[in-house]
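User: Fold this; tokens only.

Assistant: Input:
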Amino acid sequence: MGTLDFNIAHMLAGALMLASMTMLYQKRLFALINIYALQAVILALSVAWQAVLQHAAQLYITALIAFLFKALVIPYALHRIIVRLRIHREIETVIGTGPAMLAGMALTGLAMAVMLRATANVDLLAREDLAFALAVLLLGLMMMVTRRNAVSQIVGFLSLENGLILAAAGTQGMPFVVEISIAFSILVAFVVIGVFLFRIRERFDTVDLRALDAFRGERRLAEAFPATTACNEGDEMP
């Protein structure tokens, strides 16, 4: 493998990680979904380039699946869900943008240090891809933890899964059956997520997870003090 081949692979994997970092400071859902779609396009290009380097035809199928479903179908469906459910389009976060970016940079540095040390005897290109993949995985997990909106948490989960695909493609490819199972698992998970969001919206008139926490707290209070709750409901009756 020449220097140019390595540099292109390195650039694509780094761009994937950079897209994950960009997601951390997005304040609007549509912008977040658009960045995710861009990340999926970069993932498809990265996997296709791995197919060229490894002479692995099955990776072309993986790249096509990633482009069709993760870059086109899923972002379009998320846009439709947001419009259909009239979801509040501002993203509410647990921590501020500055601390989130600092934490993201720290996780990226940790991923690089751990993975490059743990894979000292592995091929250089595989080491780089695994390090970037771990960084993408950790950043996706962080986005799931630091977001209150269910849709943004879904995007974090999908971004995390992009890191897993990058790691698998960088380690001499995946069997065809794994590629097909990944595609179907994504579709099934997305259908379940869509039904889940519709049910949350129907029940609580919001997809903010704090509404679920408040409802759960009220139920626990009612179970702990049934007599008091019954009296309060009786007082409210005319």
